[in-house]
Amino acid sequence: MFSVTNFVDFIFPLFFLLFFGIIIYRIIQGAREWNSNNKQPILNVDAKIVSKRAHNSVDTHNHNGHVSSSTDTTYYVTFEVQSGDRLEFKVPSKEYGMLVEGDRGNLIFQGTRYHGFDREI
Question: Keyword annotations for this protein (predicted)?
């Protein structure tokens, strides 16, 4: 016969394995991307900034009835190279504010890793 205790005894380990499985998968995925980027040459290409976007994520915490939240913003810039291909990179916040759509210059990157953008004057 089915009981709540048997159900909990079955579900808890399943969620535990799923949770840690996802964490291990993300670690392996990040290590593969890092390794792949390290094997790529550092490229310098002429490019134009075609768009910028910011992604906000909100993390809410509840500590003994006191709710607080924090916001984390990730910045992305899309570049168009001479071939017409578009490449989007995550960029540091201090550079994001300095980059303007329409700017042309030299994009420096390695695989999916952004290294910089030198604007033409």
Answer: Membrane, Transmembrane, Transmembrane helix
